[in-house]
Amino acid sequence: MVRSIDGSDFGVTWLMSMFHADWTHHGPTAAEAVGYHLWDDLDPESVVAVRRDAALLLRLPAATIEVLWRAGTEAGPSFFSEGRTGAISGTRWMETLTGLCDSWLSRHAGADAAAAVPAEWDGVELADTVLAEISAADFLPDEVGRALTECVRRCTPDLAFRLLLRAMQQIGSASGAALSPEHYARLAALGSALRYGEFVVSEVQHLVA
User: Fold this and answer.
1) Helical packing angle, 62-71 and 157-175, nearest 10°
2) Among 46, 47, 75, 150, which has the minimal tally of Cβ within 10 Å of its Cβ?
3) What's the alpha-carbon Rg for the chain, to the nearest Å?
4) The whole model's pTM is what?
């Protein structure tokens, strides 16, 4: 059983992909843009996945959350300066996401049935493998590597690996970094072990040279 209905990314990392350079087309503030993507016909599992990731990230210091969010989006370094985004810190932003998800779930009867998440999907037994892949992504800034490492240890290896893929896609594409076929094969194998769909790890396949 794969982790998402259509084999694509899920949770906070799915939401991060919506924050590209023109994200304000979906709402004048970040919260309103998220509300646009949490449309009424979205499946409950998708909303639960976002909420679960955001709640896990609340285990981290605000500054660490901010590093991870900026690394995985095109929202720019000023995202947490309030201004047009309305976001003032990583902690407050994750609290906003959990609140938006709670509001959605409260409006949809039967959504609680989607709340159960198998413990094995946390990937605890794969922590060392995820840590090794964080170290192998040597084109990422040191602060991003440290934040991802902290995420493995204080959140879950699953969430840290998806955040690693987001950072590799964003930073790797911007910097012209390249992955060897062997490196990509390791990422794909790890994605399979975590029961990801076919379109999660393949988001970084364009970096293979």
Assistant:
1) 50
2) 150
3) 16
4) 0.93
| Dihedral sign from CA coordinates of 66, 171, 45, 186 | negative
Residue 3 vs residues 118, 129, 140: alpha-carbon distances, Å: 10, 19, 26
Q: Find out whether 10 and 17 touch, Cβ atoms under 8 Å.
A: no
Handedness of CA 20, 26, 32, 33 (dihedral sign): negative
Determine whether 83 is exposed, middle or buried from the number of CB atoms within 10 Å of its CB (0-12, 13-18, 19+): exposed
Encode burial over 126-139: b for 16+ CB neighbours within 10 A, e otherwise: bbebbbebbeebeb
């060897």: which residue's tokens? 180
Q: Which helix (H) or strand (E) holds 89?
A: none
Q: Are 163 and 148 in contact (CB under 8 A)?
A: yes
| Contacts made by residues 80-85, CB under 8 angstroms, sequence distance 24+ | 84/24, 84/28, 84/29, 85/29, 85/30
User: pLDDT (tens digit, 9 = 90+) per residue, 49-74?
Assistant: 999 999 999 999 999 999 999 999 98
- Cα separation of the two ends of the chain: 31
Length of the chain: 209
Q: Tokens 């679960």 sit at which residue?
A: 52
Q: How far is CA 153 from CA 147, 176, 185, in A?
A: 10, 29, 24
Task: List pLDDT tens digits, range 128-147.
Answer: 999 999 999 999 999 999 99
